[in-house]
Design goal:
Number of helices of chain B: 10
Number of helices of chain A: 9
Largest interface: A-B, 30 and 21 residues
CATH topology of chain B: MetI-like fold
Number of strands of chain A: 21
CATH architecture of chain B: Orthogonal Bundle
Structural class of chain B: mainly alpha
CATH superfamily of the largest domain in chain A: P-loop containing nucleotide triphosphate hydrolases
CATH class of chain B: Mainly Alpha
Strand order of the largest sheet of chain A: 7-8-9-3-10-11
Oligomer: heterodimer
Shape of chain B: globular
CATH architecture of the largest domain in chain A: 3-Layer(aba) Sandwich
Radius of gyration of chain A: 23 Å
Helix content of chain B: over 70%
Shape of chain A: globular
Chain lengths: 376, 230
């Protein structure tokens, strides 16, 4: 458990963060300049808060009142930086061993061969960092931090410098790390896609403060936070499980409390429990079930609440078999359908709008059996 | 290759000895000064920067005279060195090494400071998060990365020491076999009627030594660079 309660003034910018992060992946999400990296640096001991306290598993790392400020090397916190920061004069093997050799043998909880296998970097061990691709560098940087058997792993936008293909290559690795090595992760990001794929809980940062903190599903479903999560990302996150694939039709059948849900063909195995994001702007409403229509999902639902018009859009909260769905429609459509709370209707969702990036595996089977599905 | 005369051999040997010690002696404090100037911010930094650079802009004779006043047998430092450690600098080859070191110091500091400033501080931070203390971080990360700069500084300092004349002759005079380095021997020969041929030979020797040092440094620098690029 990481407990943060710190304050610092940086010029006109006031950082005032209170946050408690438990096991699993906690995402620190916010626009650039909201103070995410400052928080990570304070936790790592690379910068110093003016006031407050930081403790990890009950052990204080920083306590202004007690005059305590552990140097970074004594905090046992791994840090994966945005730019990798591999040591250019050392081979990949020496980079990986750099932190490992400074951990007492009795405290080494993360086996070298295990990390190398999970990250798929066996073939790179004798190379210099200058001869690695961006994705390879980041995998080595992750391995280097993990090998110190950290009590917490900080990741500061580790994928920001990579293109989409490299991101897709590394995301699955990170998703398995926290569970596989039982290390909590504080993941700094400004990409909601990454958050959805990785995070168990989410802290939304704005102007140096944590504006909201909770489960990813809950926060993304709150329309008043849409401003922070990005209006385009507003929507519901459902818990579901993979039922079957239909390769001929190019779709995957999921099941959730509101019924079956057809989505674009997903690579996840049947039986896998998943988290599915359904963007509010992709949900259309119909009072009667439409007849012949391309839309695959027609879910019976009930109106819970109709929000006020904002930026020319109305957020409608639906109950769909106990699950919450959001729909974003125009004020004109609202008036046309005469929506009222309690009204039964149908939520229409195109299967194609729910793509692989909207579906994230949660606890259960992990894609860990094959350590390196993709390699450059 | 023509065999060197005893006089030439002696001057060459003295030059290499004096320059070698000058570089070896001023490298550690030079690196420290470079690190302080590159990394720390404190009041009076400009003054320290100016002091470090002073030997570069002062006439060497002034430096030599200052050394004579401070480190001479009756000087405030020189008398104590002699009384406590039995070390005499004035009019010895050790004094010549000190004079060379002082004059070469700013050149070495400049090269190493530039190199230190170009090292990504983020790498040092990364080393800290991996469990490395500040001193260990310096020796395992910073120093290997600035090695090319240290090498450049050392070669610059060596070359400057080889050519050192003004401060040396003022501080330790011209004593054959003790302080008569290549430039001083050359000067003495020029002052002697009929010494032209011998002077020309010394000139050639000086050029060969300087060129050899430059080539060696270039080779080393290239090898270091290749190591960084994998």
């Amino acid at each position: 458990m990481l407990e943060i309660a710190v304050r610092r003034r940086q010029g006109a910018f006031q950082l005032d963060v209170t946050l408690a992060a438990g096991a699993g992946v906690t995402a620190l999400f916010g626009p650039s300049g909201s103070g995410k990296t400052s928080v990570a640096n304070m936790v790592a001991g690379l910068s110093r808060p003016e006031q407050g306290r930081i403790a990890l598993d009950g052990r204080p790392l920083f306590d202004a009142a007690a005059g305590l400020d552990l140097p970074p090397e004594r905090r046992r916190i791994g840090y994966v930086f945005q730019e990798g920061r591999l040591f250019p004069h050392l081979s990949v093997r020496a980079n990986l061993g750099f932190g490992l050799h400074r951990v007492p043998a009795a405290e080494r909880a993360v086996p070298f061969d295990d990390v190398v296998a999970v990250l798929g970097i066996e073939a790179l061990l004798e190379r210099r960092p200058a001869r690695l691709s961006g994705g390879e560098k980041q995998r080595v940087a992750i391995g280097r931090a993990l090998l110190t058997s950290p009590r917490l792993l900080l990741m500061d936008e580790p994928l920001a410098a990579l293109d989409a293909a490299r991101k897709a290559e590394i995301l699955p690795f990170i998703a398995t790390l926290s569970r596989h090595f039982a290390t909590p992760i504080l993941y700094v990001s400004h990409s909601m896609d990454e958050v959805l794929q990785l995070a168990d809980s989410l802290a939304l940062m704005q102007n140096g403060r944590v504006a909201a903190h909770g489960a990813v599903e809950d926060l993304l479903a709150r329309p008043e936070l849409a401003r922070l999560t990005g209006r385009g990302h507003a929507g519901a996150v459902l818990r579901a499980s993979v039922v079957a694939h239909d390769d001929a039709a190019g779709i995957t059948r999921l099941s959730f409390s509101g019924g079956p849900l057809l989505v674009a063909r997903s690579p996840l195995a049947p039986g896998q429990r998943v988290r599915v994001r359904i963007a509010a702007r992709d949900v259309a409403l119909a009072l009667d079930p439409p007849g012949r229509v391309s839309i695959q999902n027609c879910l019976p639902a009930r109106v819970v609440r109709v929000g006020p018009a904002e930026d020319g859009l109305v957020d409608v909260l639906l109950d769909c078999g106990g699950a919450r769905l959001w729909s974003q429609i125009t004020p004109q459509a609202r008036d046309h359908l005469d929506l009222r709370p309690g009204q039964p209707l149908h939520a229409l969702i195109k299967a194609a709008t729910i793509a692989a990036g909207d579906i994230a595996a949660t606890e259960g089977a992990m894609p860990c059996a094959s350590p390196s599905p993709r390699r450059t | 290759m023509p065999v060197l005369t005893p006089l030439e051999r002696e001057a060459l040997h003295l030059s290499l000895l004096v320059s070698g010690w000058a570089v070896a002696g001023s490298l550690p404090p030079g690196l420290l000064a470079a690190w302080v100037l590159a990394r720390l911010r404190f009041p009076g930094k400009t003054l320290l920067d100016g002091l470090v650079h002073l030997p570069l802009v002062l006439p060497p004779v002034v430096v030599g005279y200052a050394l004579l006043v401070l480190l001479g047998l009756n000087g405030p430092i020189g008398s104590r060195l002699h009384a406590w450690f039995g070390i005499t600098l004035a009019f010895t080859w050790k004094g010549a090494a000190v004079a060379s070191a002082v004059v070469a110091f700013p050149l070495m500091v400049r090269a190493m400071r530039l190199s230190l400033e170009s090292v990504d501080h983020g790498l040092e931070q990364a080393a800290r998060t991996l469990g490395c203390g500040p001193l260990r971080t310096f020796f395992t990360i910073t120093l290997p990365l600035v090695l090319p700069g240290v090498l450049t500084g050392a070669i610059l300092g060596f070359a400057r020491s080889l050519s050192e004349f003004g401060a040396t002759i003022t501080f330790v005079s011209d004593i054959p076999g003790e302080t008569r380095t290549l430039p001083i021997a050359l000067y003495a020969l020029i002052q002697t009627p009929g010494g032209d041929d011998a002077a020309a030979r010394l000139c050639v020797i000086s050029i060969v030594v300087a060129l050899a040092a430059l080539l060696a440094s270039d080779l080393l620098a290239r090898r270091l660079k290749r190591r960084l690029e994998g």
